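Feature request disguised as a bug report, sorry. It would help if multi-protein outputs had a clear separator. Right now it looks like this:
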Amino acid sequence: MHFLRDLGKDLMHDMHTDLGLKIIRKSMKSPLKSLLRSMPDYHQETLNEIDQGFCSDRWKMEIMAIRRIVENILTVNGSSGYGFPFSLNHLNFFTSVKDAAKRLSDLSGKVTGEASQNMISSVERLLNLIIMDQDIVDTANRLSDVNMIFQKIRSAFRVPEKGNLSDDIADGSSIHEQCNIVIGEMEVYLHANIPAHVLSAAKHIVEKYHEREVMLFANNPEGTIPRTNNGMERFFRKLRRNVRKRNGNTATGNILAQSGVQMALFQNMDNPEYVKTAFGSEEISAVFAKMRGAFQENGYDSEQCEKPCS
């Protein structure tokens, strides 16, 4: 995951940021939101009629169709949960605008109401600020091309599109093999007649992969080294959550700083193998009872080991 994140940042960070700035400079989101707010809300009776295959109020149906297209633009996210570069929000927005413009163009040939036509024209004027700007289009196309190359190596590493990254992939050798196949394909690209930005991306991926290949797939003979540190991070989050529940947010940081190691060790009490190694075949309570007996023999109160008897 960290290798792919670094790789994606090297390949796409500047282009993605540049695309976002160019879109922001067009200042089209706020007017588009204003247009959306000016549209009538969905009419339930009309929706019910559409479900039944007819509509008695064509104007409401047309406006709702336009509203739905605009909503898809403003609610686009496409996040996988991993953040950049696995989610390219600016590119996703550009793609949604491009798709919406096509859908509105198709819809304009079917609507009959003047108000609907005017609404479509108003939305299209705003969308054209993006899709008719050749600089934005070129940047988005280059970013899309590089992302296609990046997705190939991501797929080889079996990073899912959405959800949690699993550590439970026993066959790490197959991942290594698939990565080698993808890298081999990219090495072929280096000798092909492809655009300069794609060539540069493929060259960078090949170089970084060979540089870190040994470390990426290092493991012991038993294959017990996890692919990621997600397991350790989940363990720490569980520990921190338990402390926060008992002591509140304010004290959590100090408690973890002072006693975090001991608390982490204490969590091993849930691990049968650890308990057997640390306490043998006896019950934990019996082992602690023996330790407590030594304090009693030296004059400590049976109820409070830390305070000597007077």
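(second protein starts here, but nothing in the output says so)
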Amino acid sequence: MLTIETIPQNVLIELAFSLDPADIARLAQTCKTFFQIYSSNELWRSKTHHDFGNLFAVYHILTTSGLELDPALGAKFANEPSNWRQYYIEKNNAVNGTDAQNNALLHEGEEEYIKAQKDLQSFQDSQDVTILSRVASKLVWILDVFPGHAGCYHLLGFILYILNRLEEAMMLLDFGRTVDPEYEPIDDLEEEISKILNGYKGSEEEEPLIKDHELTPKLAEVLSEIFETFDQDHDGALNNQELGNFIFTTNGSHPPPQFLVQIAQRFGGTERYWLTKDGFLAFYLEQTLDDPTETRSDLSVHGYDGQTLQKMMQE
């Protein structure tokens, strides 16, 4: 016989997701079991995430990925509330205003979303990372008012994709899929990121290239061996001729001297702008995060199996 005591707790929790706070409060007064469940801080935490998204997690993901968000967002989302029921009620009242208020906010939110898209386009020209932080802040503010805006999650995921924070990007895309499973741009970006992740994580046949956003020890060892092969004078740096020889052997091009200097300046060089081993590894870290297949191809050119990272037998 089915009784209140025998109803699975997960069913009662799912029921709460479809009720407003007043209905839950009335249910909680009907029996001790309901009171214990519907007064639980964890239930209200889950209901908050279900109805409004987990902006506390979003904030943490973005800030730990190197973005400097609006300080006012930190005041709201850096720390979770101690009383989730109170937080939910206040949030619910703020989000669910009158029809006129909601329409005005919706119009404002869409305008801000369009501006965010344009700002991201400007980043392509300037490469100014502060633009990404500004856009991310704007998108989080929109989500604070419109929790179901899957486009914001898509753009946030794209920002982390630009920053090579691929696993974190996938988390945000997953949040977006939760609010709108039919939003196709999320699927497209997730597919692209999955290809890259699979490329440097490796498979049963492939040695991984990246772990925790760094070169794996095995890949670093192989790249160091390649570096030492081209460091003909064994001074710990590739001068212009040595670096030029490496690039020509790798892809058949003859880069101009200024390009070689720029590589050393960007990734790590001596006072004479010769690329150091650390700079060489830093270059390959960036390349591998961007395109692991290119790194595997480079290894093959230099006598290593691009999948296993083992040195191939010379005929």
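Even a blank line would do. Unrelated, but nice: The chain has a mean pLDDT of 89.
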